[in-house]
Amino acid sequence: IAIQGTSMAAPMVAGLAALLKGYFPELTMVQIKEIIFKSVQKIDRTTPIPGGNEEVNFNELSITGGIVNTYNAVEMAIEMTSK
pLDDT at position 49, please? Predict the structure, then answer.
């Protein structure tokens, strides 16, 4: 059983989206997507290409170049909804 890659990333991101929608129901899904994309924790490291051994920079395999950060996302949601 794989506990890495999209098998773990998808439920983590979906859970964050559900948390944001639950606590901030006034946010649209477009706003939630924007928050998730902008609130990631950037990482500067290499990782193997899926299915191979070649190491590449993480941002070459990820649109955001980071991993979800719930704290940052909630802070952004608070800021966005307080305007």
Answer: 85
